[in-house]
TrEMBL record:
Protein name as annotated: Twin-arginine translocation pathway signal protein
InterPro entries: Nitroreductase-like, TAT_signal
SUPFAM superfamilies: FMN-dependent nitroreductase-like (SSF55469)
Annotated region described as Disordered, given as residue ranges: 27-47
Gene3D superfamilies: NADH Oxidase
Species: Paraburkholderia nemoris
């Protein structure tokens, strides 16, 4: 299949300006279209991390190996890939969803955006300039096809985030409460937004806005635990990553909920240096905005990794905003957080929350499905 000709507006460029030239590689890629890719690795768990870190794979296989190391909601990894010599298609695996906890599939499509971003970061080292076309078959109907990443031969180069792919992990440990994040760093992270409709804002944890963020997060965590539909969505996420899902008893899940509530209060909210909120201009049902927000989140996390910052998504009240919007067509939680922001964000929706700070230790790797099980023909 060839990628149809694309309008300038529909592209999201792969960030070539930010590339570091590798003189050791030096030449534009001359990889022929017919080159056969290396075999797909079939090891899961921590295997995909070792595969990537030890430099295995080449071309599209290595780019896909980077994509699957990205963040995803509850580590559900809701993606499938179609690999061709000159492009990669990223498809939604819609069965891997969080039910009513993610009624608009916002988180699912954000996870796809994260994978797309990792692929774009990995591509230049394989001699490609990635050019991304989002939802290429929508609105015709097939929004399973989240993106087509065209791989244009280019001078081989290493993206500044390339090495951070292996070191980026969601860090749920306590952060250093004596260490603030300087304004220049927050401004640099805010500057990573590449779409006029997707922005990130920061709230110092102890500021009035940060206090509202914490209060809403605690109320939302309790609400998710107490509301059967929402709790079931969370449990679906926990089952998706369990080594033996059928062994997860109701008691074990309830214990996990109690620990989650406690950790949200005593670790996540209590030790954050700052909170971040990704805002989108438009409706909260728009998959294009979800994907772009996911790309931004992955970029922020990779950039933060290069700066030794620890980060953890915190989406409990964002999930409650989705739930309120779905069931009531309006959201009290959204109004409350918006009122706490300094700027007027009329017309914008909060769609992703996170905390950041400095942690004493690196977070562990989370398991991945083997690449061989998620590449389709
Ligand atoms: C859209 C989205 C929402 C997420 N929400 C949360 C969250 O509310 N709390 C949390 O601890 N992690 C959250 N995460 C992080 C995932 O759990 C994490 O990315 C996944 O387990 C893989 O681990 P890794 O990021 O360390 O590779 C979220 C990630 C994404 C992409």
């Amino acid at each position: 299949m060839t990628v149809p000709s694309l309008s300038r507006r529909s592209f999201v460029a792969g960030g070539l300006a930010a590339l570091v030239d590798l003189s050791a590689f030096g030449q534009p890629s001359t990889r022929p279209d017919t080159a056969s890719p290396p075999p797909l690795p079939d090891i899961g768990g921590e295997g995909p991390w070792d595969y990537w870190a030890s430099g295995q794979g080449a071309g599209v296989v290595r780019i896909a190996a980077a994509a699957i190391l990205s963040a995803s909601p509850y580590d559900t990894q809701p993606w499938l890939f179609r690999l061709r010599s000159t492009h990669i298609e990223v498809l939604a695996d819609k069965n891997r969803n969080l039910g009513e906890l993610d009624p608009f599939r916002r988180e699912l499509y954000m996870g796809l955006g994260c994978a797309i971003e990792n692929a774009c970061v990995a591509a230049p080292a394989q001699g490609f300039n990635p050019v991304v076309r989002l939802l290429p078959e929508s609105p015709a109907g097939n929004d399973n096809l989240a993106a087509a990443i065209e791989l244009r031969p280019a001078r081989q180069a290493k993206h500044p985030y390339h090495d951070a792919i292996a070191r980026r992990h969601t860090n749920r440990l306590p952060y250093d409460t004596d260490r603030k994040i300087d304004q220049a760093t927050l401004d640099a992270l805010a500057g990573l937004a590449s779409s006029a409709d997707v922005q990130v804002i920061f709230l110092e944890a102890t500021s009035p806005g940060g206090t509202v963020f914490t209060d809403l997060m605690m109320q939302a965590t309790q609400l998710i635990i107490d509301t059967p539909d929402l709790r079931e969505g969370r449990w679906a996420g926990l089952r998706a990553i369990a080594a033996n899902p059928s062994a997860l008893s109701a008691e074990a899940l309830q214990r996990a909920d109690a620990n989650w509530l406690k950790a949200t209060r005593t670790v996540a909210c209590a030790t954050a240096a700052a909170f971040g909120l990704i805002m989108v201009r438009g409706t909260r049902q728009d998959h294009r905005l979800h994907i772009e927000a996911g790309r931004l989140w992955q970029r922020i996390h990779l950039d933060g990794t290069n700066r030794d910052l620890a980060m953890q998504p915190m989406n409990h009240f964002v999930e409650v905003i989705d739930h309120e919007t779905r069931t009531l067509e309006t959201s009290r939680t959204s109004s409350t957080i918006r009122a706490a922001l300094q700027q007027d964000w009329n017309g914008w929706e909060p769609i992703f929350g996170f905390r950041l700070g400095y942690a004493g230790a690196m977070a562990p790797r989370s398991p991945r499905r083997p690449l061989s099980s998620i590449v389709v023909t």
